[in-house]
Each structure stands twice: as structure tokens, then as C-alpha cells.
Give the backbone structure.
Amino acid sequence: MPTRVLLADDHTLVRQGFKALLEREGFLIVGEASDGQDAVRLVTKDHPEVAVLDIGMPLLNGIDATREIRKASPRTKVILLTQHDEDHYITEALRAGAKGYVLKSQAGNDLVHAIQQVCREGTYLSPTISRAVVEALLSKNELLADPLTERERQVVQLIGEGKSTREIARLLGISVKTAESHRSRLMQKLDIHETASLVRYAIRRGFVQP
């Protein structure tokens, strides 16, 4: 029985390219998503063995989508696709529960191997990412965890994407008052007092693409 895979990337041509590659290798693509929220919804509905997510997706980035998928469908293995090889992206991806981290520049060669590896209960990192570096990054003495809650990270991303408080409330299924409360609390936590600085924080943390 072929391994069932969900693909999520906001660029249609990129998604179609990966779909063609994986179908050629015998994988079954059971769903496609163009944003993180839709990816979580489809995984929750279909429970594929593997979800391949782009990190830089609208509405919900790939790292936070990974966190939600791990809760909604624990048996689904998540592989993140990205252009980023910076330390903090790798750290946050692994902390979120991703089992694979594949650089897009190497995905033609790496993605099939990554899926095979995670299905064998392993972890796959593109070869240029040093495992020693990753181990150091995950040690207790390294980078502090993000101070924001999962909901606050979602609010930061949507602010970074230019969404109003009312739009944020609608997209997250919460009241406008609750959205305002999240916004105020995260600004207090981060000691940030203006929207432009919040947008810069969202870009720096990789929640949105510049």
C-alpha cells in the first residue's frame, strides 16, 4: 500500500512539481493545501502518514502548523521544506515536532529519502545541516524557547501579514475583544509598542516572509 502524503505550499507550481516527483516514486498524494490552516484541516480529516509543509505559508506558518498537526494527528510525520538553513529555523522546527527538515535547493534529491526515513521512525535533515549543530541548538544551554504562546504566535503572524484585529478574530474563530487581548499581551511580553515593530519581529522569527 503506497504511503499517503499531504503537500502544503502556497506556490502552486512548486506544489505541482513536488507532487509529480512523489507520484513518480510511488507515493499517493491525498491532499494539497496552499496555507497552514488548510493543511491542518486536511491532515485532521485524512490523517496521512506524512505531511510535507513549506515553512513560509500564509495564515499559519509551517512550524506552527506542525505543532497543531502533532496534536490533531500524532501519527502523521511532518517534513518541513524551506529555503532557510539558519539555526533558529532548524531549532524551532525540531522543537515543534518536525521529523524532517529539507532545504528546497536539495529537495529534488532529498525529499524522497526524507519521507522514507521518517516512515521508518527516523529523522531526516538535509546533508548540509550539521547534526552536531542541531544537537547543540537543542541543548538546555542554547537558545531560549519562544516566549509567546501558540495563539500569540498566530496573532503575530497575521499582524505581520497586514490583517486587522477584526480579520484576525474571524480567521482564528475568536471574538474581537479576545484578539485585542492577545495583541496587547504579546506586545507587553515583547516590550513592543507599535505595529511596525511587531511586523519586524514576525519577519525576524520567520513567521512571515519579508
